[in-house]
From TrEMBL:
InterPro entries: RidA, RidA_CS, RutC-like_sf, YjgF/YER057c/UK114. One of its GO terms (cellular component) is cytosol. Gene3D superfamilies: RutC-like. This is RidA family protein.
Length: 128
């Protein structure tokens, strides 16, 4: 089994001892992304919608670095600081996943997220 680290300056640097993503055995495992601006490393957005958009922009950058896009995502996990934000996040999510076979997904409320983010999303994509 060969593992390859995927990293791009178009997404925030890892804030700990982990990779933005790892490619192995035909799959790309994207680490949880929070709404950090890749240039400044600061949180972006006051609303859940603004934060969700930034998270998806970060995920897109990582997928693109690996030669993939959202149509290649097979599974996503959405972590919310407030499950009451589920409907609003679903609206943003639908803008990125709306055609073809939609990914399997879990959405859960957690006690807290890094840097007091309202949302974090991780995903797995199938490589081409």
């Amino acid at each position: 089994m060969m593992k390859k680290q995927i990293a791009t300056g178009q997404a925030p640097k890892a804030v700990g001892p982990y990779s933005q993503a790892v490619s192995t055995d035909g799959f790309l495992f994207v680490s949880g992304q929070i709404p950090l601006d890749p240039e400044t490393g600061r949180m972006v957005g006051k609303t859940i919608e603004e934060q969700a958009e930034r998270v998806f922009q970060n995920i897109r950058a990582i997928l693109n670095e690996a030669g993939l896009d959202f149509s290649d995502v097979v599974s996503a996990t959405v972590y919310l600081a407030d499950i009451g934000d589920f409907a609003a996040v679903n609206e943003v999510y639908a803008g990125y996943f709306s055609e073809g076979v939609l990914p399997a997904r879990s959405a859960i409320q957690v006690g807290a997220l890094p840097k007091q983010a309202k949302i974090e999303i991780s995903c797995v994509a199938q490589e081409k």
